[in-house]
């Protein structure tokens, strides 16, 4: 099965390096992506939009046989959901890694501090303690060294979704900093964060308690969780 791996903010394709072996061992073909503007070096990211990221993933999906699995981490989950909206007939499942699908008219996180059209990785003090579980000093230093600024418009652009067939595509949420039980409570309570997830007809959950970046703190276990999501019992 073709599995397209969409990184969250500040990360490129290499962030999946320690996750891919578990997928390969299970016989899957991995396609880790570096999204537009997320290459290293002195790059002008100010004109890159959320739609550019969506279109880049759609192009990859169109080059593969139907039945693609999308894996979206964090902000990459919003990109994955927009790709489902664009190509609902080509996607077999979406796996949200510490993420949920975004609603029509919403943006990912416009409150992140931007500079010159891009959003650098913020100070650790800007994150909740739950986000940083297992992310020790060594991992934090490695993450900061590899972090790439995210285009500001990717964080702030509003998403336009229109195809109701997106709700027919099965979803698995790999819950890390927020346990699946809390997500279910949010759905039952009508919380806006899970409004779109509540409309999906087939949702399953896998709990992987760790940081918001499990590909850094528990990559082997994340790979195994993705395999379980793709091959449910």
From TrEMBL:
Domain of life: Bacteria
Keywords in alphabetical order: Hydrolase
Record flagged with keyword Magnesium: no
InterPro entries linked: AB_hydrolase_1 (IPR000073), AB_hydrolase_fold (IPR029058), Sec-Metab_Biosynth_Hydrolase (IPR052897)
UniProt domain AB hydrolase-1: residue ranges: 3-222
Gene Ontology MF term list: hydrolase activity
A Pfam family that the UniProt record links to this protein: Abhydrolase_6
Gene3D superfamilies: alpha/beta hydrolase (3.40.50.1820)
Protein name, entry field: Alpha/beta hydrolase family protein
Organism: Asanoa ferruginea
């Amino acid at each position: 099965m073709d599995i397209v791996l969409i990184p969250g903010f500040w990360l490129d394709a290499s962030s999946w390096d320690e996750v891919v072996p578990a997928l390969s061992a299970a016989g899957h073909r991995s396609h880790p992506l570096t999204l537009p503007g997320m290459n290293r070096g002195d790059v002008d990211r100010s004109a890159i939009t959320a739609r550019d990221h969506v279109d880049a993933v759609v192009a990859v999906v169109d080059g593969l046989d139907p039945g693609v699995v999308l894996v979206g981490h964090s902000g990459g989950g919003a990109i994955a959901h927009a790709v489902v909206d664009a190509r609902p007939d080509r996607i077999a499942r979406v796996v949200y890694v510490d993420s949920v699908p975004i609603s029509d008219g919403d943006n990912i996180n416009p409150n992140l501090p931007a500079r010159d059209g891009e959003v650098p990785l913020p100070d650790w003090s800007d994150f909740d303690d739950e986000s940083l579980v297992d992310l020790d000093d060594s991992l934090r230093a490695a993450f900061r060294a590899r972090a790439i600024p995210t285009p500001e418009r990717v964080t702030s652009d509003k998403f336009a979704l229109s195809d109701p067939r997106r709700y027919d595509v099965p979803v698995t949420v790999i819950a890390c900093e927020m346990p699946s039980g809390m997500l279910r409570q949010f759905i039952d309570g009508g919380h806006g964060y899970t409004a779109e997830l509540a409309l999906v007809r087939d949702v399953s959950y896998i709990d992987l308690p760790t940081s918001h970046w499990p590909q850094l703190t528990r990559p082997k276990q994340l790979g195994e969780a993705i395999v379980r999501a793709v091959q449910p019992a």
